Each structure stands twice: as structure tokens, then as C-alpha cells.
Amino acid sequence: MSLLAGHQVEVLDTETTGLNPDEGHALVEIARVSVMDGVIGPTWSSLVRPGRPIPPEATAVHGITDAMVAEAASVAEVAERVRRDCEDRTLVFHHAAFDLPFLMAALRAAGQPPLLAPIVDTLGLARGLFQAGSNSLGALAARLGLLREPQHRALGDALTTARLFILLAERWERERGVRSLAELAATSQDVLRLAGRR
Asked: What kind of architecture, by CATH, is found in domain 8-197?
């Protein structure tokens, strides 16, 4: 029986105005993909009004302009939706160290409690299996033959991350003996911590 059987996890991805919420950067798009029993389920995405201009260098990456977000949902609306949809389910990111601070800043700004569920980082899972070579989302999708989605848009990247998560979870279970979501989450974080110390 698969370690994903009987579980629902939420895969999240964001696009932003820059690299660091502590420097005033903010969300411009967010997406969620549910994975239920190891199968991709419902999806949701929303543009977000960031409350500041989107720098040209950010638009060059994701293609989102000030005009596109002028009538978009507020940070508070999006944060409330994410908090409600994710509840206390395990969360999945590719490079959580980027997305999670933006998500937590949005929740704080909206007066929402933080998400305290375990986090599986597919970057850590990939590094633990493959080590050498690029472990960017696009490179992994190409290497593993995953269906390609539009890159650097939140829903496309969340769908790619969901497919990557399912594949990597199966490999960690089969090849490394991981037996639970909690163990998978801890393993992904351990790999990243060890890599950071080298």
C-alpha cells in the first residue's frame, strides 16, 4: 500500500514581486493543487494585488503585469482561502525556502494563524535521490519526462510539483523504505539541511 494512500496533501506555488518579503516584496499569484490518494485532484489559483508596483525584472520572469493584478484579489482574501483550503494537511513545495516566507507574510498580514502542518520539499527529495545535476523544477520535469506546464506561473508550477511529488514519494518508498508522509517530510528537510552545511 502506497504511503500516499488515504492522505490528502496540498501543493502550493507562488509568484512574487521579488525575492524577499522582508524587503517589502509580495505575492502576485498563488496556486494550490490537491493530491488525494496519490492522484491529482482539484486545483485553484488566483492573481493577487501586491500593494506595490511589480518590478520589470519580476515581470520578465513570470509575465505578470501591474495591469493584470489591478482588479485581482487582495492579500487578505487569498490568505483566508489558503488557510481554509489547506487546514492542517501536509503541504508540498518545490524550494519551500522561497515560497513559504511569502505565504506566512500574507497570512500574518491578513490576521490568519500560521500553517503549522509538516512540509515536504520536493527539492530535498530530488537532491537526496539524484545529487548531481540541476534540481530546478524545469530540469527535473525534463529529466523525469513529466508533462510540461507553463513555467513561472503559479498553477503550472504547482501542477508540475504535484506530479514530481507523486513520482518522488513512490521512489523514496520503493528505494529507501520511507513509510509515512511525516517521514517523507522530515527526510526532505534533512537533505536540505545537510546540503546547506557543506
From this structure: 2-Layer Sandwich (3.30)
